[in-house]
């Protein structure tokens, strides 16, 4: 009984207005990060990013920090991202009863739980990064290479990095799939939304998910290449992924399209904050 009360209390917290409103702030914050990231990518594409911030999450947060209200804004962003992480962590409890089921019920519960855990980790990591930037203690741009170099020193570390790269590639492909098939609409309750809002959400998702998916796919590819060559310098993060797109044939225009897709994904998150998760 105590376990059931604990679960019920946690779910009640997940449904509470306070956490839900903070989660909305988190979605808007996550959207702001994507818009700034898109701006940095456009600067990179058109030759204005040579001496500026890196085109990655750290660079986006550092750019926010340089604005007139940068530090207070970063604290709001960090708190909102923490709320998103907590919200996703509590979502796992929604599906706990399905773990011991069988067939499609169990598969759905495990799949949704895994997605919630992955999102919680991403939001928590971004929240920590936002706190570090706000307090002036953020690390340098080579942190991903350092992390990969450290993993290479583990038993089987090379295979772990390669597997992580393949997972990121898979996530990127899934983002493209969600955008092309409009699968993202199954995750949002638009029953009370006017037709204009539904059209806006649909168009932004159709552009935003593939744009972000391409960037993630290249990022994962760089991780795989780092594992194949046993060279952590190849794992150059999102900034390196965007620079790789820039170096491709017609790279400036391809990177511009990716940047516009990332911007659309950020705008999608703004609208997404207005409507609840479909359960």
UniProtKB/TrEMBL annotation:
InterPro entries linked: DUF1206
UniProt keyword Transmembrane helix present: yes
UniProt protein name: DUF1206 domain-containing protein
Species of provenance: Blastococcus aggregatus
Secretion signal span: none
Keyword line: Membrane, Transmembrane, Transmembrane helix
Occurrences of domain DUF1206 (ranges): 25-91, 116-181, 207-275
Entry annotated with the keyword Chloroplast: no
One Pfam family it belongs to: DUF1206
Transmembrane segments: 27-46, 73-95, 116-134, 159-177, 213-230, 250-271
């Amino acid at each position: 009984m105590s376990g059931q009360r604990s679960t019920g209390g946690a779910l009640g917290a997940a449904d509470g207005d306070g956490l839900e409103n903070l989660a909305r702030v988190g979605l808007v914050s996550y959207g702001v990060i994507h818009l700034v990231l898109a701006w940095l990518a456009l600067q990179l594409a058109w030759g204005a990013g040579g001496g500026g911030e890196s085109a990655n999450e750290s660079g986006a947060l550092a750019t926010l920090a340089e604005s007139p209200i940068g530090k207070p804004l970063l604290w709001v962003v960090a708190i909102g991202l923490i709320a998103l992480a907590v919200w996703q962590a509590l979502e796992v409890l929604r599906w706990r009863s399905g773990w011991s089921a069988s067939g499609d019920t169990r598969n759905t519960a495990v799949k949704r739980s895994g997605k919630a855990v992955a999102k919680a980790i991403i939001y928590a990591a971004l929240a920590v990064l936002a706190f570090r930037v706000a307090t002036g203690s953020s690390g340098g741009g080579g942190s991903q290479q350092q992390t990969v170099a450290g993993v290479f020193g583990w038993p089987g570390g090379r295979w772990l990095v390669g597997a992580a790269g393949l997972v990121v590639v898979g996530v990127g492909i899934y983002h493209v799939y969600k955008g092309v098939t409009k699968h993202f609409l199954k995750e949002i309750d638009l029953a009370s939304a006017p037709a204009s809002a539904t059209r806006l959400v649909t168009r932004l998702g159709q552009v935003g998910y593939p744009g972000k998916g391409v960037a993630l796919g290249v990022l994962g590819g760089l991780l795989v290449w780092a594992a194949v060559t046993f060279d952590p310098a190849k794992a150059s993060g999102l900034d390196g992924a965007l620079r790789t797109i820039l170096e491709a044939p017609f790279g400036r225009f391809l990177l511009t399209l990716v940047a516009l897709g990332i911007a659309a994904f950020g705008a999608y998150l703004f609208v997404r904050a207005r409507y609840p998760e479909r359960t």
